[in-house]
Amino acid sequence: MAEMDTSRKGSIHSRGLPLKKHIDATLGSGNLREAVRLPIGEDLNEWLAVNTVDFFNQVNFLYGTLMEFCTSSTCPIMSAGPKYEYRWADGMKVKKPVQVSAPKYVEYLMDWVESQLDDEAIFPQKIGAPFPQNFREVIRTIFKRLFRVYSHMYHSHFQMILKLKEEAHLSTCFKHFVLFTWEFHLIDRAELAPLNELIEPIVFRYF
User: Fold this and answer.
1) Domain residues of the chain, as ranges?
2) Run of H or E residues at 191
3) Which DSSP string do the residues of 120-183 spell out, in sequence order?
4) If you classify domain 48-191 with CATH, what class do you get?
5) Predicted confidence (pLDDT) per residue in 99-154, tens digit
6) CA 194, CA 81: separation in Å to the nearest integer?
7) Of 7, 15, 33, 82, whose CB has the highest number of CB atoms within 10 Å?
């Protein structure tokens, strides 16, 4: 099985650099609620694009620390506890959802997200170039799939996360992710069910 490339990293194109600096500044202040809000006068699609790259990089890094513990033997099915199983389909190469191991699912997922980020027809790099009509739909699909990686990490690898002393970093990244998805309604409530116990206190506190 091909190993996932942990060195992969989505990049912020030049038109998004001012917004990236805003994200870093507001996150540095510790105010996550403020960090997810659309800055006054900024384009929503541009804000979604820059943050999508950031969240992709965060999830890719977090999962990368667990790769040696998440194998086809330990995690033969991509799941979030006993009630939720995720099957892979990208609508192009794999049209019918298929059951795959967790590491294979994440590998497919990261490859797919990276292909979306690299496609200038979806994430235009030239200043002034328009975003496609289906941009929000693509963003929602990306966030839904990134959430599934969080769900798997929490349900299947949390003890190892504690052992590696990564729980604080994971918690901060997940909280930021939840607040952003909630602010812009990017994931259906039913999809969030596997981690409802974690999500509800976050939403209650900040919203």
Assistant:
1) 48-191
2) none
3) TTTS--STTPPPPTTHHHHHHHHHHHHHHHHHHHHHHHHHHHHHTT-HHHHHHHHHHHHHHHHH
4) mainly alpha
5) 999 999 999 999 999 999 999 999 998 878 899 999 999 999 999 999 999 999 99
6) 8
7) 15
| Mean predicted lDDT score pLDDT of the chain | 89
Residue 79 three-state SS: strand
Contacts of 20 (CB under 8 A, 6+ apart): 12, 50, 54
Residue 41, sorted as left (phi over 0), alpha (psi -120 to 50) or beta, turns out to be left
Q: Where is pLDDT greater, at 20 or 186?
A: 186
Q: Return the higher-pLDDT residue of 160 and 5.
A: 160
What 3-state class would DSSP assign to 88?
strand
- Please, which residues have CB within 8 angstroms of residue 160's CB and are 6 or more apart in sequence? 66, 69
Q: pLDDT, tens digit, for every residue of 152-201? A: 999 999 999 999 999 999 999 999 999 999 999 999 999 999 999 999 99
Whose CA is closest to 139, among 205, 86, 187, 104?
Answer: 187
Q: What value, to the nearest 5°, has the Cα angle with vertex 184 and ends 24 and 54?
A: 30
CA–CA distance, 85 with 82 (Å, rounded to integer): 8
